[in-house]
Amino acid sequence: MRRTSTVDALTYVVTIRNATGNTVVGTLTNPASLPTGGVGNVDFTAASGIGLSADTTYLVVWDVSAQNATAGQAWTTASDAEDTGAATGWSIADEGLFRDFDSTSWTSSQRARKIEVHGIVTNSAPTVANPIPDQVAGVGTAFGYTFPADTFNDPDGGTLTYTATKSDDTALPSWLTFAAGTRAFSGTPRSGDVGTVSVKVTASDGTDSASDTFDIVVRVNSAPTVANRIPHQDLEVGTAFRLTFAANTFHDADGDPLTYTARQTDGQPLPSWLTFAASTRTFSGTPPAGTVPVINVLVVASDGIATGQTWFNLNVAAPGPTVTGVAVSSTPSLDADNNGTPETYGLNGNIEVRLTFSEAVTVTGTPRLTIKMDPNFGEKQADYGRGSGSAALTFVYTVVSPNVSTQGIAVRENTLELNGGTIRAGSRNAVLTHAGLPHDPNHKVDASLTDADAPAFSSASVNGATLALVFDEDLDTGSVPAPGDFHVTVAGSRRGVAAGGVAVAGTTVTLTLASAVTAGQTVAVRYTKPATNPLQDVAGNDVATFGDQEVTNDTPGTTPP
What we know:
The chain is mostly beta strands and 561 residues long. It has five domains: 6-117, no CATH class; 127-219, Immunoglobulin-like, CATH 2.60.40.10; 225-315, Immunoglobulin-like (Sandwich); 323-450; 457-553, Immunoglobulin-like (Sandwich). Helices cover 0% and strands 43% of the residues. The chain is built from no helices and 45 strands. The protein has an eight-stranded mixed β-sheet with strand order 41-40-44-45-38-39-43-42, with no helix packed on it. Strands 1, 2, 3, 4, 5, 6 and 7 form a seven-stranded antiparallel β-sheet that branches.
């Protein structure tokens, strides 16, 4: 483009238009000057870039101000071939076609018009791909929520950084913190925080950003509680199993909907053969050969803030010993209604429940089962007391203040639990399911009264020089008889108790004999109540004098060299 004289120094406007020449998509800036006469190069550039679409035809149009219509011309390249190009841009420079604005036909020209296109990096702002759902936080309960990594999307694949404020761009409340690196909110609201906090999360790619807002509703919450325990289940290897626990297993006082998860009580996931469908509360699967005999399953119910949990056993393979009978085996010591028959346990009185098994069992640890007082005094745990090696196990609960049961105690069905111990016959685990007993008016409880029942001898065993006497309740460790108050015979001859050889702990009195017994010898023991330091329970009830009692001799035989 050139000018022939200074008179022709007019204003030139160069535009990029669509293929029809009607729509302007960008305007190029004027050059500082035009060459006078001859042929010269003039650059018109776009100050901030013009967006062009691929596979689209554009016209380069220039106009001269104060000229008639014929002075304005439209030019286009003769082809769309790329003449030169590189990563920094490409250009077209070939024969041109032109026409006056008032013409409808194009004329070929050898004068090339070169168009250079240089791409620039443009940024695409992040977007919200998956809005953050509203959350609920409970007063006094630790709150935690991590929003997913796919909440925001960056079309350019850039790394996003996050910030969080209230929706009005002020700081989060003092109880709520946000860890941007992990996208995690946490904190424990207090009673003064009850209400709704609108939280705005902003994701930035360093140039542009996107935000999403969600609410955290803070309220006083009651955790789910166990209303009806899930019964233990018996399974057989190779037989399909299915259990749907009841919808009323848990109760939520706030009426919140509950969600469920399940795992083993030791924190391990369920075995691979056992599946849990949370939406239907259903366990199903077929145990294969080699499945462990007992699987302790923990079920957790969540209201979105707090949780409640219960557990049940899956007893797999051939059933071990089963409970065939349940009875309250102790006798109350107090006649509170003065009808001539004791019916009430007082303070420190021992309530004993006997479980009879289908065969002899061995106990380790302290299994327990549940008895129930009046509604206001709830359930209590009766711990294993004695009976290992026999078919009858006794569980003992000692009355404490303020226990009361005017309708008598009840034994809860299927509440026998191992509590870290074992109940077995050989290698087979006992089946823990059992019947319950209703409230029994012959076994009432009133901790305002004092127990008058004396401890009773239960069993005795000896191993070498150590002889253990077991009673039916805990003894007072501060009242220790003298060695001479016990009379031990071994194979018909008296065997002395060593000086200082009497110790009292729990339900057991341990005697250290002057010399050890040998395997197979017959041993017996008797006790004479002394005037001072007699055996007695914690309520001060003395153990009565008793005659010779058979002692089980557990002393191992001598192995020949």
